[in-house]
Amino acid sequence: MGTSVFDSELLMNAWSTEEMRGVFNDRARMQAWLDVEAALALVQADLGMIPQAAATEIAAKSNYDAIDMDLVLQHLKVTKHPLVPTVRALEAACEGDAGEYVHYGVTTQDVMDTGLVLQLRKATEIIRRDLKILAKDLMRLSEEHRNTPMMGRTLSLQALPVTFGFKTAIWLSEIDRHLERLDEMEKRVFVGSIVGAVGTKASFGPKADEMEKAVNDRLGLGTPTISWQAARDGFFELGSTLGGINATLNKIGNQLLLLAHNEFDEIAEPFGKGQVGSSTMPHKRNPAVTENSVTVSNTLKSNINILSDITKHEHERDGAVWKMEWKVLPEICLMLSVVLDNLKFVFADIEVKKDSMLKNLNLLRGYALAERVMFALSDKMGKQTAHEEVYSAAMHGIESDITFREALLANAEIREAISEAELDALLDPTTYVGSAPDLADHAVAQTRAGGRI
């Protein structure tokens, strides 16, 4: 296959993926650094630390389009430094002696960390928005299919009936909890860093604390209690939270693939006119978009495994560890946006095959209702006795290749304890979904009440 899973035409409605790329491209990254430099200069001028005219000029030129990129690349080849070329290009862009006050007192990590936080805040907003879109579709499905019976499965095998709305309501609640986690972590993760070379603010003088808070306020970020240059638990928390979201979406995608198997045939993703499932098998309508979401989601997990390593900085700064974040965190955001775009497409117009669900409910010819029959008999012969008699009938029936009804009626003790009419009512799988519809309603109501969607 000639295209990457990230560039595949299968992405269909990949508007968020493109938007996420815009958050993490070279232009956006450099602009985030320049935004920090501009805020720093303006605040320092307000506090009398640098001339007001210099700050005005620095802020005016802290724009990607005002920077000489050829000069940046030239300095990059010589300095081998991630930020200095941009700082020098900003200095060169400023008129008069304003360039002398660029990057006044801060260290590279201040600017790059704070710039990355600005990018990650934008990325998280995209992810939050897409989760809400997905959650709204799951809410709709939970309401529409609260009473749509289907077989529940445990340990890969048929267990007891549930409803499709019950299943989607579980997914909905899980996503709502992830949205809650995103909200709760903001105060810990989206904070700036204006603390100088080793975090002591030594280069800023007595106005250091006031300056740091004012810069962060201007950028819309929180101010940390103390330097986090060597404390990366915030980024670890963000990556872990996004990893948890990915784990949920991976689970959902995998379940959709299973339910789409011809042998189950209980759901189908949208399949447009002209779409091709196979180059050689004309009949195929592959769940390609769902499959793509799972492929990217599986790949994303490798970045989650690296997260614990970003916390083990040596001393006050560790470049070998620090620079891992520049790869890991943007990739997590980019790949998660692909997964979300894929699943948004699927759930916007998913086909729920009620007839297939009903057919599969009867696949075991009544044996899946053994629990129900057992409890009905418990009132007549005691629970343990009922279990033994139903078990005996079930094993005999399966080995004899007869229906569960036939097996039960062949058992004298059971036949004496229950009428055929009562037994027929018990063996209707559509009436043994427990509180699934009410539980789906409750989950939807609780999600609405939470106000996150």
UniProtKB/TrEMBL annotation:
PROSITE patterns, A to Z: FUMARATE_LYASES
Pfam families, per database record: ADSL_C, Lyase_1
InterPro entries: AdenyloSucc_lyase_C, Fumarate_lyase_CS, Fumarate_lyase_fam, Fumarate_lyase_N, L-Aspartase-like, Pur_lyase
The Adenylosuccinate lyase C-terminal domain, residue ranges: 365-444
Entry EC no(s): 4.3.2.2
A GO MF label: lyase activity
Keyword Lyase on entry: yes
SUPFAM superfamilies: L-aspartase-like (SSF48557)
Keywords attached to this entry: Lyase
Classification via NCBIfam families: purB
Protein name (Swiss-Prot/TrEMBL): Adenylosuccinate lyase
